[in-house]
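Incident log, structure service

09:12 report received: a user says their structure output differs between two submissions of the same chain.
09:20 pulled the input from the user's history:
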Amino acid sequence: MSARSASIKLHREIYAEEAIADAAATFEGYAHFAVKPEGDHFVVEMSDIESEVEGDVVAEFCNFVLANSAVIRRGSHA
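09:34 re-ran on a clean worker, output below:
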């Protein structure tokens, strides 16, 4: 098993910090996460991405963050 990593930039106007933290906690068994603000973005550094899992962990993480950000943003504008 080889260690994989990825760096993801998520724009603050679209992605909620709470959704990123929730996704990192949900996916903690599949990778290690470090999140830092950088200008208009949150930068998510994923390391030690599990290569034995079926599917694309990075894409699934991003989908999870996007869906939860939409729910959070919709709730704050209700």
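09:41 both user submissions now match this output. Likely a transient worker issue. Closing.
09:42 reviewer note: Residues 57-76 form the longest helix (20 residues). Residues 16 and 69 are 5 Å apart (CA to CA).
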